[in-house]
Write a structure and sequence with these properties.
This protein is mainly alpha-helical. The protein has a single domain, classed as Growth Hormone, Chain: A. 80% of the residues lie in helices and 0% in strands. The protein has 9 helices and no strands.
């Protein structure tokens, strides 16, 4: 799931990777929206807020929002930088971004459960950490799949699905296997992202910040699954 890179990846590899990471991202985004009142799996809305704050001359708030955008950018940068600089060990280079993301999610869960006092500064910092974590995930999935898998936001995915659905109304395109495979992958990502978000929203009131532990659990599953399948191949 993680070891294969770019063109060597099958549809099944991308569906497994996309589904589990999208489920985790959906959980994180909805939980952060409930507790921090901020989206943390994408920055489209933050760019709009940044423009608004600059227009109003609210420079402090504009700086905070810019910092959030930068954290998401830096997460993507960090993921790809790790991948291209540790070429000798594909599993290690692809695992480190997920491990860093898990550390971020668990840290937010622990801090939120035991120390969070709902101050504005705490909220802003926690949102920044989660944006960095989602950037790590998005950078990893996009890098190793040659940009076929992006799981932290669905704007581009919805656009692609709309275009593909339009193309599939014509018989000539319905015979295109690559087009149908892409549609299948996008649908899996969307469904698992939505499912993760729904579950997160339903259970947050019962478990609170522990929901971030659950989000990290699915990333741990990816790491162990990939490690175990490789060991089986080596036997």
């Amino acid at each position: 799931m993680l070891r294969k890179f770019s063109s060597s990846r099958s549809l099944a590899d991308n569906i497994k990777l996309g589904s589990l990471t999208a489920f985790s991202a959906g959980m994180v985004n909805v939980a952060s929206l409930i507790v921090l009142f901020a989206f943390t799996s994408n920055v489209t809305g933050h760019f709009a807020i940044l423009a608004e704050e600059i227009a109003r001359g609210n420079w402090h708030q504009a700086l905070i929002v810019f910092g959030w955008i930068f954290m998401f950018f830096f997460g993507n940068f960090t993921s790809n930088n790790i991948i291209i600089n540790i070429k000798h060990n594909t599993y290690l280079s692809h695992s480190i971004p997920l491990i860093l993301e898990i550390v971020c999610l668990v840290s937010v869960g622990i801090y939120g459960e035991y120390h969070y006092r709902e101050t504005l500064t705490e909220t802003e910092l926690l949102a920044g950490v989660l944006l960095f974590a989602m950037g790590l995930q998005n950078g990893l999935t996009a890098s190793i799949s040659n940009f076929a898998v992006k799981t932290t936001h669905l704007t581009g995915l919805t656009t692609d699905l709309g275009i593909i659905a339009s193309m599939l109304t014509h018989k000539e395109f319905r015979k295109n296997k690559d087009l149908k495979d892409k549609a299948k992958l996008l649908i899996f990502i969307a469904v698992f992202y939505l499912t993760g978000g729904i579950i997160s929203g339903c259970i947050y009131l019962q478990i609170g910040f522990k929901v971030f532990y659950m989000g990290s659990f699915f990333l741990i599953v990816i790491l162990f699954y990939d490690y175990s399948t490789q060991n089986e191949k080596n036997k």
